[in-house]
Amino acid sequence: THNLPPGLEYLNQLDQIIIHQQVELLEAILGTETSSKYEIKNHLGQRVYFAVEENGCFDRKLCSPLRPFTIRIADNAGREVIRVIRPLRCNSCCFPCFLQELEVQSPPGTIAGYVVQNWDPFLPKFTIQNQSKEDVLKIIGPYATCGCFEDVDFEVKALNEMTTIGKISKFWSGFVNNVFTNTSNFGIQVPADLDVRIKAVMIGACFLIDLMFFESSLDGL
């Protein structure tokens, strides 16, 4: 473990990661979009990391799910161990040359890998890349991501897209929660021996999937 990026030793033996978005009272009551805050836990529900989104109010109001952001992920001692950076890009099959791309750093300032959206007319598809931009894994979502009364699974696959090795799941959290807040709960399942840097990139992929498919503006409520 002495060769691991500082702070990522917590991910070394994990095969399940739970990401829980904290409820923002102002967002729930007034319908005002606020910066997201997340707890990242192991399968026992013990908090491993805490994540905070950084961006401007203008970005949140105008761009909403497409907004650029920096998410800083800190361990329980308050040390920043992962940084997730999302620039402003398109989210439409009409612009296949400018689709989503996410950069994950660990430690901050050192590239751990990337999440790259792939063009597809029907399915959400992404490629997980290492620090050298070499393809490592694929993520393929379902045709419909509304998730009414059920979980939504994005399958993690080998590069041939035939073998499933894990998944990113959006857990349905109940009618009241879905109507009155954008609060999300996700689970990531990957092999325990997967490179911890790629596990960190998978956390970044989970944040990207959340904003692209499950966060909608509450301004009309």
TrEMBL record:
The Gene Ontology CC terms held by the record are: plasma membrane
Signal peptide feature range: none
Q: Which cofactor does it need?
A: Ca(2+)
Q: What keywords would UniProt list here? A: Calcium, Lipoprotein, Palmitate
**Entries under SUPFAM superfamilies matching the protein:** Tubby C-terminal domain-like
Q: Which GO terms describe its molecular function?
A: phospholipid scramblase activity
A single Pfam family it belongs to is Scramblase
Q: What does this protein do?
A: May mediate accelerated ATP-independent bidirectional transbilayer migration of phospholipids upon binding calcium ions that results in a loss of phospholipid asymmetry in the plasma membrane.
Q: Record's PANTHER family? A: PHOSPHOLIPID SCRAMBLASE FAMILY MEMBER 5, PHOSPHOLIPID SCRAMBLASE-RELATED
Q: Which family is annotated?
A: Belongs to the phospholipid scramblase family.
Q: What is the name listed in the Swiss-Prot or TrEMBL entry for this protein?
A: Phospholipid scramblase
List the source organism.
Melanocharis versteri
